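quick one before i forget lol
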Amino acid sequence: MASAHIISTQIRHVRDAESARALFATIAALSYEMVALAYLDPDRRLLGMRHALPGDEAAAEVPVRLILRDALGMDAASVVMAHNHPGGDPTPSTADRAVTRRVARALGMVDITLMDHIVLAAQGSFSFRAMGLL
């Protein structure tokens, strides 16, 4: 997984699914699956991001320990997770649903909220929060 870093972006606040989609929009058209995470302060201001690089183990499995380490290290109040579906359909798989529950549960144990998990694809996007799954 790539190192966490403060990013240079126009998006400084992630208030809802739409601003999260805009923050992660660049991964939608990738030809390989990538996981991206945004770490937010209590006012939902962006503290930093982490992207899983292609070929990294994180592209196949979300590393919950690293998410927790980053969130605690940045003193994040919430996290937004996103990944792309190169096939074009943003419908979350059974594995996507399971990892979302696992990450939300792990973050919740240390009083950090998984604000959303966005799935991006050529045919649109899917927000776990907007669909009532978080």
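fyi The chain has a mean pLDDT of 83.
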